[in-house]
């Protein structure tokens, strides 16, 4: 839920080619709410935070990061591509 009636969510993904292939999934929320400098210092410990920062990265042998920048909240998940693909059952 946005703090104002205006806002957008963008979900993008791309393949990174480093020593192996990785999926980089980015969730970006943008709104026009004034930023609260104390928000960055608040520790998020609810269910959503557990899923974003522990469950999803752990399940995919990946990592996640979260950042706040000028009215944006950005969460990124980086995981080995082969861990993100489903193998067809024979």
UniProtKB/TrEMBL annotation:
UniProt name for this protein: Histidine kinase
Domain of life: Bacteria
Organism phylogeny: Bacteria, Pseudomonadati, Pseudomonadota, Alphaproteobacteria, Hyphomicrobiales
Organism the protein comes from: Phyllobacterium myrsinacearum
């Amino acid at each position: 839920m946005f703090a104002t009636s205006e806002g957008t969510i963008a979900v993008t993904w791309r393949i990174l080619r480093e020593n192996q292939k990785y999926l980089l999934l980015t969730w970006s929320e943008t709104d026009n709410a004034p930023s609260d400098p104390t928000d960055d210092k608040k520790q998020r410990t609810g269910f959503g935070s557990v899923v974003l920062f522990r469950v999803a990265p752990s399940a995919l042998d990946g990592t996640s990061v979260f950042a706040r920048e000028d009215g944006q909240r950005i969460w990124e998940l980086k995981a080995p591509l082969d861990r993100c693909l489903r193998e067809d059952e024979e």
